[in-house]
Amino acid sequence: MNRFQSWGRFPKAEQDIHAMRWKDGMLPDTGEKSVLPFGLGRSYGDSCLNNGQSLVETSGLNRFIAFDENAGTLCCEAGVPLDEILKLVVPKGWFLPTTPGTKFITVGGAIANDIHGKNHHVAGTFGCHVKAFELLRSDGSRTRCTPRTNSVLFKATIGGLGLTGLITWAEFRLKKINNAWIEMESIKFEGIGEFMKLSRESDQDWEYTVSWIDCAARGKAFARGIFMRGNHAPASVMSRKVHAEPKLTTPFNCPNMMLNSFSIKAFNTVYYSKQRAKKVRARTHYDPFFYPLDAVNEWNRIYGRRGFFQYQFVVPFEGGSETMEKILEKITVSKQGSFLSVIKTFGDKKSPGMLSFPKPGITLALDFPNRGKSTTQLFDDLDQIVDSAGGSVYPAKDARMSPDFFQKAYPQWEAFSEFIDPQFSSSFWRRVTAQA
Amino acid sequence: MKTILIVGAYSSIAEETAKVYAAQGNRLILWGRSEDRLKSVQQNLKVLGADDVHWFEIDLNNCADHAPLLEKTIQKAGNIDIALVAHGTLPDQSAVESDFSVIEEVIHTNFLTYASLLTALANYLEKQKRGTIAAISSVAADRGRKSNYIYGAAKAGASTFIDGLRGRMASFGVHVVNIKPGMVDTPMTAHLEKGALFAQPKVIATGIVSAISKKKHTVYLPGYWRLIMFITRSIPEFIFKKTNF
Asked: Are the C-beta atoms of residues A37 and B208 closer than 8 Å to each other?
């Protein structure tokens, strides 16, 4: 099986694979072919692929370099997965400064995609917490980049999709915690208006906020969902137990038939109705709170051989609610949406990243089984709505947006491309910079 | 807390094993070829919780350096409780079978350096009257196969040496473990197609640590290789010689 594919398993790509095991080592000689760093392949679309070219696998760059337990800074090689970091730092009372919905990504990937998490409204992106990293370029140069030294290369590399060179190691700040637990509340809401109200109320006092939204319900139940907010539990809770390894694996590619508009609607209804009370309080371990899907290895295989898309966009607050309703309407009518649709507000903490995705506004992320043309047509329609609202789509999750839309949403792309290493490229980059 | 010598410290199996020992708070001594890499491994083991990590640069192919470096190591780092010998090379058989100079290298690295180093370790542990030597041979040692008999022959030599050494050391309270990994997903096997039987170095490492603490004699890792090799050894030669293993 070709494990060098993206998480959405679409598009398929063939690449020469080279491995990098030592941070002092040279980049592999890929001859005429361009190269792209590949971590754990959790990007959904084609930003981690380099079809017909080569990849340099970074999972061998998996060593810690220094952990300052007093100051809460960690320095490690770029292929270290967040999973291993948690195992190291949680027992010492530290946590990741921000984390996406899976812990199976590398530090290099976190920087290259400038990932965000449930605490974006207070903490910003991962790039906001990076103190330094080393960039290895194809000319053999090694540049130590920080917010002060080589700061332009620093900014280009954060959110730079792995195109500016290979990050060999990085140093970043951790977040102090008392224990491994989160105190959370789940509140049912009906409609975008109520979601926005809950977001505004929660942003001050709750470090983590995220909502699940029903993308299948219509009529009275339209845009219903569950708002989840959490804080690290207070010092009275002692346990710093780390997470366990996943126990379940999706054993095979599920038949495409399994996901249809009926099963998806049923799932969404059950998920919404499972919580009876308007508001539920609970204390939960960080693992199910941040990483519910990590419990099942290779869950992406439930979408079958044809793979799936994730569509994530952000639109500014101004007029955002109306845009969100318009988009949800379109998705519910299409009956193509899937199980876990996630909606959240981004805060205004600015990332150093030149090409970073998050900006103040509302973001929605949804999975769509790949049904071919009807699915991509839907995305084209959604792009138009996002575009006219002044929004953008997340490159790390994209496999199909048009060059026009990308270049309009990321006008800084030309300035960014000055910093791309001449030997580096990706399927994504070639696609979105192709001449129309 | 124990002191553990890891020889060939940046083979994936050795490094993963060192990580397990580091997380338990042990002291580690690393032998390997390049300073930069030894330092990378050292830093990682320290962060993971090793009490202390020393390293020594050595080209293991120079057998004459083994005993003197062992002496130097003990002078600097003290007595050794466990020694794991894990270096090696896996040649691409088809490329070497007609070239004796390469065959000689394979046998030198995978057998002669083991004989030399294990002798030095044995002479030292014999006096110390305690300790464990764990050395990595291979499932390839169990039967000569068309596809890798050169590597297999060298490993068979090492394997017989390890087993014999166990007898010599038994009366001195020193234990010797013969570790036979199957196919492992490491840089050494990067040129091979990865089938379902390939194991991750992490899994092998856990098996090594457990075999050492349980004082096993010979251990197949992962365990299912014991059965596979039993069957492989049982196939009559007139059939076996026609297979493509």
From this structure: no
Q: Which residues are bridge partners to A144 per DSSP? A: A134
What DSSP letter does each residue of A81-109 carry, written as one string? BHHHHHHHHGGGTEE-SS--S-S-SBHHH
Structure-block tokens of residue A222: 């339209």
Span A267-295, pLDDT tens digits? 888 888 888 899 999 999 999 999 998 98
d(C-alpha A165, C-alpha A111), whole Å? 12
What stretch of H or E contains A429? helix A427-432
Query: ipTM for the complex?
Result: 0.92
CB contact set of A324 (below 8 Å; sequence gap of 6+): A192, A223, A315, A343, A362, A364
User: With an 8 Å Cβ cutoff, are A66 and B187 in contact?
Assistant: no
Distances A411 to A48, A154, A347, A354, A421 between C-alpha atoms, Å? 22, 19, 21, 11, 20
Give the tokens for residue A205.
């006092």
Pair of tokens at residue A372: 């071919």
Q: Which two tokens stand for residue A351?
A: 């990332």
Residues in chain A: 436
CA distance linking residue A157 with residue B171, whole number of Å: 61
CA distance A65 to A76: 5
CA dist A339 and A326 (Å) reads 19
The reply to whether residue A65 touches residue B37, judged by beta carbons under 8 angstroms, is no
Q: In what order do the strands lie in the sheet with A181-190?
A: A279-285, A181-190, A224-232, A208-213, A341-346, A361-369, A308-315, A392-393
Question: pLDDT (tens digit, 0 to 9) for every residue of chain B, 245 residues total?
Answer: 999 999 998 899 999 999 999 999 999 999 999 999 999 999 999 999 999 999 999 999 999 999 999 999 999 999 999 999 999 988 888 878 889 999 999 999 999 999 999 999 999 999 999 999 999 999 999 999 988 999 999 999 999 999 999 999 999 999 999 999 999 988 767 667 777 789 999 999 999 999 999 999 999 999 999 999 999 999 999 999 998 87
Residue type at B41?
V
If interface means Cβ-Cβ distance under 8 Å, which residues of chain B face chain A?
Answer: 36-37, 40-41, 43-44, 47-48, 187, 190
Nearest CA among B139, B143, B135 for reference residue B169 = B135
Q: If you write DSSP's letter for every residue of A342-362 in order, what string do you get?
A: EEEEE-SPPPS-SS----SEE
- Taking CA atoms, A337 is separated from A213, A261, A362, in Å, by 11, 8, 18
| Burial class (CB within 10 angstroms; exposed 0-12, middle 13-18, buried 19+) of B172 | middle
Q: Do B44 and A24 touch (CB under 8 A)?
A: no
A390 close to A411: Cβ distance less than 8 angstroms: no
What torsion, rounded to 10 degrees, do the Cα atoms B101, B102, B103, B106 define? Answer: 130
Residue A59 makes CB contacts below 8 A (sequence gap 6+) with A19, A39, A40, A79, A106
A339 touches chain B (CB under 8 A): no
Token reading at A191: 């409609």
Cβ-based contacts of A64 with chain B (< 8 Å): 43-44, 47-48
* Chain-chain contact of A67 with B47 (C-beta, under 8 angstroms): yes
Helices (H) and strands (E) in chain A — how many of each? 12, 20
Q: What whole-number distance in Å separates Cα of residue B52 and Cα of residue A194?
A: 56
* B37/A22 Cβ within 8 A: yes
